[in-house]
Amino acid sequence: MTGPIVVINPNSNQAVTDGLDRALASFRLTGGPAIECVTLTEGPFGIESQLHSDQVVLPLVDLIARRSDAAAFIIACYSDPGIDACRSVSPVPVFGIQESGLLTALSRADRIGIVAIAEASEKRHRLYMRRMGVSSRIAGERALNMTVDETARGTGTFTRLQEVGRALISDGAEALVLGCAGMAVHRAPLEQVLGIPVIDPTQAAVSMAMGTVLANQI
Amino acid sequence: MTGPIVVINPNSNQAVTDGLDRALASFRLTGGPAIECVTLTEGPFGIESQLHSDQVVLPLVDLIARRSDAAAFIIACYSDPGIDACRSVSPVPVFGIQESGLLTALSRADRIGIVAIAEASEKRHRLYMRRMGVSSRIAGERALNMTVDETARGTGTFTRLQEVGRALISDGAEALVLGCAGMAVHRAPLEQVLGIPVIDPTQAAVSMAMGTVLANQI
Amino acid sequence: MTGPIVVINPNSNQAVTDGLDRALASFRLTGGPAIECVTLTEGPFGIESQLHSDQVVLPLVDLIARRSDAAAFIIACYSDPGIDACRSVSPVPVFGIQESGLLTALSRADRIGIVAIAEASEKRHRLYMRRMGVSSRIAGERALNMTVDETARGTGTFTRLQEVGRALISDGAEALVLGCAGMAVHRAPLEQVLGIPVIDPTQAAVSMAMGTVLANQI
Amino acid sequence: MTGPIVVINPNSNQAVTDGLDRALASFRLTGGPAIECVTLTEGPFGIESQLHSDQVVLPLVDLIARRSDAAAFIIACYSDPGIDACRSVSPVPVFGIQESGLLTALSRADRIGIVAIAEASEKRHRLYMRRMGVSSRIAGERALNMTVDETARGTGTFTRLQEVGRALISDGAEALVLGCAGMAVHRAPLEQVLGIPVIDPTQAAVSMAMGTVLANQI
Amino acid sequence: MTGPIVVINPNSNQAVTDGLDRALASFRLTGGPAIECVTLTEGPFGIESQLHSDQVVLPLVDLIARRSDAAAFIIACYSDPGIDACRSVSPVPVFGIQESGLLTALSRADRIGIVAIAEASEKRHRLYMRRMGVSSRIAGERALNMTVDETARGTGTFTRLQEVGRALISDGAEALVLGCAGMAVHRAPLEQVLGIPVIDPTQAAVSMAMGTVLANQI
Amino acid sequence: MTGPIVVINPNSNQAVTDGLDRALASFRLTGGPAIECVTLTEGPFGIESQLHSDQVVLPLVDLIARRSDAAAFIIACYSDPGIDACRSVSPVPVFGIQESGLLTALSRADRIGIVAIAEASEKRHRLYMRRMGVSSRIAGERALNMTVDETARGTGTFTRLQEVGRALISDGAEALVLGCAGMAVHRAPLEQVLGIPVIDPTQAAVSMAMGTVLANQI
């Protein structure tokens, strides 16, 4: 029997992990892989800087070593922290949600807009997308300029998502990626309001991981 | 209740459709979307030229119009024939297996090799990949130089796949895409022998389509 | 003796064909190739969508087969419909006016602006230019937002062309391509008013076709 | 009445100018623009180095100033020496044969091979093609490794052209550009033998210049 | 003993050469290479056009031939005039200040803004940067729209530098290059006011030249 | 008075630090910045994997915090470990030797070859160069396939360097970067033998750092 898809929230905010869990509820199917959301207890409360991102690399590597039962791992932070290190040690596929979210968006539209939480991460994302070699498909990235925590509970989040989404559409975006692990609850309503595909990156990564697992069962 | 993922074999060879069906068996999960493989009866027996590819566009568009129950469509020919036309008329997502296969491979490795059936399609694929904006990630494409029909039953197919796969690895490939709708049966053994990820593009497209459907059920 | 350059208007609007004919009058030189403008009677009245573009592919292929006397073919619709299919069957060169118009513009200036008829075609053109590998030379594309029919007779067309042309210049364009087969009559006046080269794509394609024919007569 | 297309041979070898003249014979049509081939007497006997290329810039600018009757200029040396300077002073279009040859080849095939005279110019051409933004379409460049003078009369030239052409085809070239002003006589036979389009860059530039002139006569 | 780094001001304005000299004062270190600033007396008073740029090529080549004692040359005009010709004849490294300035800026930030003197040079710089293959790192270029002479003494220069610098920052620039040989005096104050790295291209080129000389002394 | 340039050897092998020190001897000039080579005692004995590279990030950040006297930092490992984290916390410029080495090589030649120590790092470097946006200038990377320790003392190192250097030249390289912090001793002899520029990346980074320091003293 195949092991679970282990979705790692690299920050130590259990509320974020719980949100991930709810966002993946419909992906748990009878006969399909289990999907387990875990919190990296060594992580900071939120990953909001380059340093936060670097601090979780070795704990992530340790967690991966401990979970030898996993069929696949997902690093559920939009900076894809530790993706290279985790891949270098893991015997099973490791998916980063930025990478998976963008690649999935590229299957839905030509030019992609990214909704970031904070402007500070825009440069980190840009370097990562250039490294991915997909920059010619990116219409732009714009930030909500809220903290992860605010977006998680703020009532103004959806209003702000619409504003930023519309700005990205006027930049040329034909699909959006939510650049954060914790906004899945807004995905469907935002897609409805804006009329273009909206991708939750964790759901995108889990889809890809499920594909890997299921392909091995043929 | 959500409709089925309709996987369209755009050639009229029912054996290919049956092969697709078997390749997707493990993707049919209780509670998940139905996956229905259909044959485009108006298609040629195999799609082996640019003209074949163009001949199926309008029949595909018609089929899509008839299947208003579908939750997503998959065009299961590696040339992604009619992808633009189908997307322009379909109210639900349409996935091409070349696009999905490549994007999925990009989530598994940096540089990708493509195993084509015949050399004649190499240029068509190259233009498509340049249009996708992912050329910097492509290590190369090499052809089996067999007909679709030969690959479907030929006992020599697996031997040839290994040869071509090894050549692509020496070109720099770190993951392979099987550039054909009918080679899923060889995916796992080839991955085993070569030691790098091997992607069946129809499975990749179905994973992405499942992700779309399941995300709508949250 | 060499055959004619056959300029195919892929829509069934004879007025457009007649306009092409007038736009090419000065290209008919004694001793040079004949230039024959023909209407694809099977085509829609105007090509204004992806589907229109796909509908003419097989009729174009048939027309090419019938005209075995041609020295070269020109597909005179800015979407270059059926260009791959036509090339795959034609024994003589086939030119698309989008491709020829852009390449000719690249010989006149560094950054090119495209005047489209309708916004809806902008994405189709963008994908085609990315496939051509010339995106780094494109300053932008802007639409008149008129129908083909309106541009053909509208008195406001020239005013609108100037507005859009000036907007493209402020985007960085140093030469313009008229993104339509039916605006040749405005080429010279627009060039005069704007002070930068303006390319009619059908004339550009005919020049290239003439070069092919004449080079064979050395 | 329109003035002539002035084709400038920037080296002082009259035999090369005479060859240009013969290569353009069929482009002289009744009612079309005159085509006049002139020798830059201040030029070196052959342009075979960066320094040679730079030495002709100011004499070219002077020649352009003297020929205010011209309808267009063509700089008939594959290095396109002085193209920027000439364009900055000329009131009429200036075509470089490298640029025109490559752009014309791009209308005939996806990937282009260049046959250079000498390896020493390969780097100069590469920088120019990167500046043009068309590098993704270049299959390769290979040199005959002969002097301009040798190619002009050498009986071994055609044999060597075939060898180099075949090597470029195996590099992926689907059309060739003759990277020299003096090989037009070999164009048609080489195209015949190799089975892919072969472009003489001076003919390509003259076609484009004719297009400019004729478009102004509508 | 090693020879001097010869910094060539290709215009004949001695005040510019004197400014270069002052801008390099701190780079003259005991035991390090001498740094000698020389005026190209054959040059125009300022290099403000393509033609000016081409006029200095052969005089630069001659100067390089005369200075066989040099350990390295720097062409201190932001157009990098004659860089290819000078490199083709010089036995020692030749640095262009545009190239060195941009490469140095790329070591300080991801996206670079260029402050040009005049809009007219923007296209020349753009072509050069595309040829360098670094366009994906350029945020933009904006001009002071002053003459070289004005910038050299104008009291309004610093105010204008701040305006243009702020505009480039809003374009995305994270470091600036002063696109002129004569603005070093403003470098430090501008960096102070804007809060991002500001590169003087002549200082950048001299640093690189010093590195070459010193590496040869190990 | 300005502080020292602090060159950090991120591995704990003091012999490597001592080698860096010797390689920079001639860069220590009276009146210029001090150059101090320090060992990251928390580092592994050699950085030969992705994990090694990630392990030194936080210790590097700590070291930077402790050395508030520094005028600039250099991370002297060719993987540029921790470059983003260090830059995010350092008040002074931080140079990575891969980045500096490549940028410096780009000022010396058009296409660059990289001599890696081990094949395993080739992918890490490729991703980094793609992120830098300079891939179009890279001729190739080839590995010595020796350990850092072997290269440090092996008598066969120079022979192997010549072999690999010649292979890179046949790949098109016109300058080489030594892809390791510990091969400076071979730089000048290799340049002599191969006849093209050879860049030691630590020397390149120190040159750039010196430029930063000296520019602040004008």
UniProtKB/TrEMBL annotation, chains A, B, C, D, E, F:
GO MF assignments: amino-acid racemase activity
Q: Which domain of life is it from?
A: Bacteria
Any one Pfam family here would be Asp_Glu_race
Entry's family note: Belongs to the HyuE racemase family.
What is the official name of this protein in its record? Asp/Glu racemase
Species this protein is from: Pseudooceanicola lipolyticus
